[in-house]
């Protein structure tokens, strides 16, 4: 037992250390983000690539006679810094050396003047020759080499310019290619028509050829290989290529060719941005400059000059040297940074405001772009990845920007920007239910068999990562959408189809392939984030999520992180390619897991297990402790009540079990009962004198209930679940402290026994009134919510899910750890104050009720809750537009009389559920007469306290992986919880049969003989933090309400001031 406690303490200590590290890391990251923002409010980091982009820019400058000397050293330094130990250059970090990449890097270094005798160049030669030499390079590398006469043009596939003339209705045309391929191939048509050869010696690269005397090597599989493999598309394209070769690439049709060239150049020119960019990416920009020069343009002509300037803007230089980025990513970086800062609860609102404004100003709202070829009637509304790219908006970027805007301000869900973006995304959905990056129905995969297709990348098909992000964005929108804009029904239909797509593409392992991030970790993470909004809404989701979570957990490395090699794209058995952890892949994995699991998933226990109580009744009478013990012992002998002596155990599945002893003995009792007798009056005891009592003075806050633990608890009293499950301890421990004028009766119990407390303390000899015990093997609630539709829950549309739930959890944890000190104090609310507050609220409601309508009813409890809400909101001072979620507890015994025929009597367990009152902070503060908040609280109770709503809410809870109640509102909500225990009638508990003598004369007190005057409730929260909660203990004999407030320490002065103001007004 002692070792268990010590292990738990060490775990808590380690957890605190981890939290401290997380806080520190979060603070550093936030500071770095704020320090790196550009002056106009956006972010843009380096977009890394392999060395081919920089090498190909060097080829361009060499071909056009542009200066290379100024940056020669910087270019060389960068290229050499990327070389692998074996002399190669790879496609990406951690990827094996690639012969094409190595050849291009070698040629660029040689053009820059690097001697072939240097060790780096020698190692590159060895690697290239072992890999098959220049003969094994990809088609695009062949084209670059051919422009310098280092590869014969006849060894390059035919690319007739007439391709540009094929109409969009043709099965193969320029628009059936992916946007990135389309923008690059169009200028390549011109390059391959001209077949230029720029000045370099013919033998300039012969040292990389295995056989430099025969350079006219084939670029694809032979006819017979394709036939034997039954590759019909590849066979057809090879036949066409051979035919075009025999026809001289159609160059012998001069009128057609000249017309095609003009149309091709017109097509390219139409897509150049005013800044000189083409599609915002390097390959089409690079190739288009070649095309214009070959068509007779000069370096100073506007298209060429702007094009070269645009490429130079992609340059990035630091201590590693100078390189050219393949693209720039300001819109993407700013969107993701905004999402990150929102999730990290950044207090720099001005920075976020500027960032969101900067993004919104880049929305593409003109009817322009290749996407309109197949969606001519679709209204624009997308965003692109780069500074300038008006023709190719990006679906993934647009979804991320929706997330950024709605996370920043939930009201933006109804903004023109978000509605236009979502409408555009809806129109870009593919027939298979998924979404691609830039195009729609761009799925002609047979095009990858075209001879000039290098990496099976000529199509822009649906993918899981983009589809997942869109489901996340649409799910977040539907959470906040009031449906006034009419978009929600369309979003729901689209999301149902999106789930269908994910269901069809999930692999047997449970993972999804990721196209735009490496790889299965990325794809699975985004699919999980998107699906999290539809758990309970779509019955298929749970079956998709469960194996995905198991797969993700199985890929965690020993250091706690995740890492995945790009080799997973090459091999279907990617498990062997798990590699060292990276920050990005670990973050992706955690995003996916946290969208469905709690932050303590490794040790999930139902949250009720974490709550244990010491419930103390103060009697201003001397009670006979032996009589109390005897009455409880007799109760254990009646019917099945002896089962209360069951021991708690955890089974192999981590679930609680009741183990009932065959018999009870003195050494193995049904309950523990201890007594301490003090030979003095309670007012003479140092702690006893501070214990509140009827009519308690409120001018000074009463001590926290926990202060009295040494007085009300026995040294052996349990305080956490482990004290029960790792011992032979019965569930109940009763400790009686007897003074000369008072008695304190404390019941220590775990929260799973809660409903027993008000039902099993019948000490008075009235055995005929003891209800039948409902045995443990009978669970009245076992079928609750099994067949109920989750969408029947009135707050279903406002349930916080997915990343929103993660954000809420992080905000809540941040509150707990930023304001670590918390206090709990009892407050006595005089009955006459409650009466006056209720009367004021009723008058307020009457004044606001139209003539002839019934004035809304509010109870004393509603008014007490309303006063507590206003007091807490005033003290905590949240933003005026912040959502307040007040979670009220209610019991369901009366709702299901077929399950609880005795009104819940004799039921051991919990049968309480929740209603949610949603308010706005500003409204609560303005409601000085409490009518509005009290009425809203009553409405919520009436709305949720019925059979249908309880069934639907239970269905949602069952569908949740954590099996916890939903959070309703939005990710930025302020969580408040209220447990009104007044109906338990604790102050009416009658122990008069055990009274030995009165401690306070009956004439000097409002409560009857043997009735409690005060109740002290110590709550032990083990790894289940609670804050901003109130427990309404009940109404005492004087008519005063006793409340227990629990919140952060710093706001208690403000709470006490409001209490004193109320009392002063009453005077």
Automatic annotation (TrEMBL):
Coiled-coil features, chain-numbered ranges: none
Protein name per Swiss-Prot or TrEMBL? Squalene cyclase
Q: Which GO terms describe its molecular function?
A: intramolecular transferase activity
Q: Where is the Squalene cyclase C-terminal domain?
A: 328-606
Species of provenance: Aspergillus sclerotioniger CBS 115572
UniProt-listed Pfam families: SQHop_cyclase_C, SQHop_cyclase_N
Q: Show the taxonomic lineage.
A: Eukaryota, Fungi, Dikarya, Ascomycota, Pezizomycotina
Say if the entry is tagged with keyword Isomerase.
yes
* Every Squalene cyclase N-terminal domain range: 28-319
What GO biological process terms are annotated to this protein in UniProt? triterpenoid biosynthetic process
Source organism, top-level taxon:
Eukaryota
Q: Which keywords belong to this entry?
A: Isomerase, Repeat
Q: Name one GO cellular component term.
A: lipid droplet
């Amino acid at each position: 037992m002692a070792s268990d406690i010590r292990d738990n303490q060490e775990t808590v200590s380690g957890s605190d250390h981890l939290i401290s590290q997380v806080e520190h890391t979060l603070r550093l990251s936030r500071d770095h983000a704020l320090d790196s923002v550009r002056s106009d409010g956006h972010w843009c980091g380096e977009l890394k690539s392999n060395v081919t982009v920089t090498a190909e820019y060097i080829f361009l400058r060499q071909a056009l006679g542009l200066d290379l000397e100024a940056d020669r050293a910087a270019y060389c330094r960068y290229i050499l810094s990327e070389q692998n130990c074996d002399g190669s250059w790879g496609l990406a970090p951690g990827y094996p050396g690639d012969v094409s990449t190595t050849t291009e890097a070698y040629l660029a270094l040689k053009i820059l003047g690097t001697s072939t005798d240097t060790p780096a160049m020698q190692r590159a030669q060895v690697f290239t020759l072992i890999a098959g030499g220049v003969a094994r390079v990809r088609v695009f590398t062949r084209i670059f080499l051919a422009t310098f006469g280092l590869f014969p043009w006849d060894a390059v596939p035919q690319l007739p310019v007439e391709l540009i003339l094929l109409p969009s209705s043709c099965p193969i045309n320029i628009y059936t290619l992916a946007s990135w391929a389309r923008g690059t191939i169009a200028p390549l048509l011109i390059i391959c028509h001209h077949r230029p050869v720029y000045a370099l010696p013919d033998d300039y690269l012969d040292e990389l050829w295995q056989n430099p005397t025969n350079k006219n090597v084939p670029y694809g599989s032979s006819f017979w290989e394709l036939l034997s493999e039954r590759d019909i598309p590849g066979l057809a394209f090879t036949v066409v290529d051979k035919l075009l070769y025999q026809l001289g690439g159609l160059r012998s049709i001069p009128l057609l060719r000249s017309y095609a060239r003009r149309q091709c150049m017109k097509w390219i020119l139409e897509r150049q941005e005013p800044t000189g960019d083409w599609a915002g990416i390097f390959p089409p920009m690079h190739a288009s400059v070649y095309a214009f020069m070959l068509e007779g343009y000069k370096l100073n002509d506007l298209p060429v000059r702007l094009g070269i300037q645009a490429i130079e803007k992609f340059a990035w230089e630091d201590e590693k040297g100078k390189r050219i980025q393949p693209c720039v990513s300001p819109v993407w970086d700013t969107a993701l940074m905004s999402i990150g800062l929102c999730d990290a609860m950044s207090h720099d609102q001005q920075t976020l405001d500027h960032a969101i404004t900067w993004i919104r100003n880049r929305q593409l709202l003109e009817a322009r772009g290749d996407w309109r070829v197949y969606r001519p009637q679709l209204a624009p509304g997308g965003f692109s990845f780069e500074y300038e790219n008006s023709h190719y908006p990006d679906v993934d970027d647009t979804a991320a920007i929706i997330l950024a805007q709605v996370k920043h301000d939930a009201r933006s869900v109804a903004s023109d920007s978000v509605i236009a973006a979502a409408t555009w995304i809806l129109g870009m959905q593919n027939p298979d239910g998924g979404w691609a990056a830039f195009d729609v129905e761009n799925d002609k995969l047979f095009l990858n068999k075209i001879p000039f297709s290098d990496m099976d990348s000529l199509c822009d098909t649906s993918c899981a990562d983009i589809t997942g992000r869109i489901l996340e964005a649409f799910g977040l929108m539907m959470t906040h959408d009031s449906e006034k804009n009419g978009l929600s029904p369309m979003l729901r239909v689209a999301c149902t189809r999106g789930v269908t797509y994910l269901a069809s593409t999930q692999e047997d392992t449970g993972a999804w392939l990721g196209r735009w991030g490496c790889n299965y970790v990325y794809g699975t993470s985004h699919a999980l984030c998107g699906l999290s909004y539809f758990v309970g809404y779509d019955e298929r989701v749970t079956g998709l999520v469960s194996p995905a979570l198991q797969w993700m957990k199985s890929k965690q490395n020993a250091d706690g992180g995740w890492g995945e090699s790009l080799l997973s794209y090459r091999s279907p058995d990617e498990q062997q390619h798990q590699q060292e952890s990276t920050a990005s892949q670990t973050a992706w994995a955690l995003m996916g897991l946290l969208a469905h699991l709690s932050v303590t998933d490794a040790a999930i226990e139902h949250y009720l297990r974490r709550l244990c109580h010491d419930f103390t009744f103060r009697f201003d009478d001397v009670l006979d402790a032996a009589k109390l013990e005897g009455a409880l012992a007799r109760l254990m002998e009646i019917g099945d009540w002896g089962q209360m002596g069951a021991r708690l155990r955890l089974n192999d599945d981590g679930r609680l079990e009741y183990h009932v002893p065959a018999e009870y003995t003195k050494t193995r009792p049904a309950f523990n009962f201890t007594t301490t007798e003090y030979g003095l009056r309670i007012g003479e005891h140092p702690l006893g004198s501070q214990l509140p009592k009827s009519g308690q003075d409120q001018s000074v806050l009463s001590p926290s209930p926990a202060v009295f633990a040494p007085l009300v608890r026995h040294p052996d009293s349990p305080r956490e679940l482990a004290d029960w499950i790792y011992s032979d301890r019965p569930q109940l421990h009763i400790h009686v402290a007897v003074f000369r004028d008072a008695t304190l009766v404390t019941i220590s119990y775990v929260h799973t026994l809660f409903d027993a407390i008000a039902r099993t303390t019948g000490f008075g000899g009235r055995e005929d009134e003891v209800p039948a015990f409902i045995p443990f093997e009978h669970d009245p609630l076992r079928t609750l919510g099994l067949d109920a539709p989750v969408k029947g829950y009135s707050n279903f549309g406002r349930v916080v899910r997915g990343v929103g739930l993660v954000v809420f959890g992080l905000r809540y944890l941040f509150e707990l750890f930023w304001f670590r000190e918390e206090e709990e104090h009892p407050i006595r609310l005089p009955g006459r104050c409650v009466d006056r507050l209720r009367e004021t609220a009723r008058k307020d409601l009457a004044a606001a009720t139209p003539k002839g309508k019934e004035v809304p009813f509010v109870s004393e409890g509603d008014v007490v809750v309303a006063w507590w809400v206003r007091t807490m909101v005033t003290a905590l001072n949240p933003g005026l537009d912040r959502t307040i979620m007040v979670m009220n507890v209610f019991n369901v015994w009366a709702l299901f009389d077929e399950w609880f025929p005795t009104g819940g009597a004799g039921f051991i367990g919990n049968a309480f559920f929740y209603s949610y009152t949603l308010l706005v902070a500003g409204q609560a503060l303005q409601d000085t007469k409490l009518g509005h908040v009290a009425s809203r609280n009553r409405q919520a109770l009436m709305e949720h306290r019925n059979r249908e709503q309880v069934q639907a809410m239970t269905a949602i809870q069952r569908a949740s992986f954590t099996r916890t109640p939903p959070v309703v509102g939005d990710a930025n909500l302020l969580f408040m919880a209220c447990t009104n225990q007044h109906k338990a009638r604790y102050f009416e508990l009658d122990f008069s049969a055990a009274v030995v003598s009165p401690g306070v004369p009956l004439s000097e007190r409002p409560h009857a003989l043997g009735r409690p005057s005060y109740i002290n409730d110590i709550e032990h929260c083990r790894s289940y933090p609670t804050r901003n909660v109130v427990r309404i203990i009940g109404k005492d004999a004087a008519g005063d309400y006793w409340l227990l407030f629990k919140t952060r320490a710093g706001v208690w002065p403000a709470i006490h001031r409001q209490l004193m103001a109320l009392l002063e007004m009453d005077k």
